Every structure is written in structure tokens, then in C-alpha cells.
Backbone:
């Protein structure tokens, strides 16, 4: 791994640790909705670093919670990418690999790089 790749990963992890609460823009209610939807298999993490719908469009409240979370993540990835000199897409994908994928609980779903939903 090159120094630049390690720096990008380190910057993304540091940015997440420092700004996780505000950048992810989740209220407790939004987090609860998303956590319940993950447990039910309605939504899951995606390899691009965002939450996606696996089944159906979800309720209006769930759609709003996912949108708010994804908006916060988008801002975080843009800041991290700017600091590391890379793209937001790369920062999001690296965040998925380093932080989000390891946190997916058994029984929950995630979308891999091939676009397939996989249950852990």
C-alpha cells in the first residue's frame, strides 16, 4: 500500500471519528428508524458508503431518515476527499471498507461492489 493510500484511509477514519455525530446528521429517532429497517432487511449499507433500500421504498419517515443520513455522509466524504486530494466516491468506498462493513451485524444486509445484496 502506498503512503498516499494510507493517508487517505487515515484521513477518512479521523474525519469520521471527529465529526461522526454531526456529519451523519442523525437524530435519535432517525437512527432508531434506520436501525430497525436494517434489522428487518429493508435497508442496508452499500459499498459506496451510503445507505440503500433493499426492499421497497419504505415509509416517508424512513426515506427522510435515510436521506438525512446520506446527506451527512456525502458532506463528510467531500470534506475527507478534499483533505486527502481524492474524490468523494473514493472516500465513501474506503469508509465502507474500513468503518461500515466491519460494523454490519449478523443477519443484516449490505450491497457489495457488484451491486448484489448480501446477508451477513
Residues:
Amino acid at each position: 500500500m502506498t503512503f498516499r493510500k494510507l493517508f487517505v484511509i487515515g484521513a477518512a477514519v479521523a474525519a469520521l471519528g471527529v465529526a461522526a455525530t454531526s456529519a451523519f446528521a442523525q437524530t435519535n429517532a432517525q437512527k432508531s428508524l434506520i436501525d430497525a429497517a436494517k434489522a428487518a432487511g429493508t435497508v442496508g449499507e452499500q459499498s459506496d458508503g451510503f445507505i440503500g433500500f433493499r426492499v421497497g421504498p419504505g415509509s416517508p419517515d424512513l426515506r427522510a431518515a435515510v436521506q438525512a443520513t446520506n446527506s451527512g455522509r456525502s458532506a463528510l466524504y467531500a470534506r475527507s476527499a478534499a483533505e486527502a486530494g481524492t474524490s468523494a466516491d473514493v472516500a465513501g468506498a474506503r469508509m465502507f471498507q474500513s468503518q461500515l462493513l466491519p460494523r454490519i451485524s449478523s443477519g443484516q444486509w449490505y450491497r457489495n461492489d457488484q451491486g448484489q445484496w448480501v446477508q451477513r
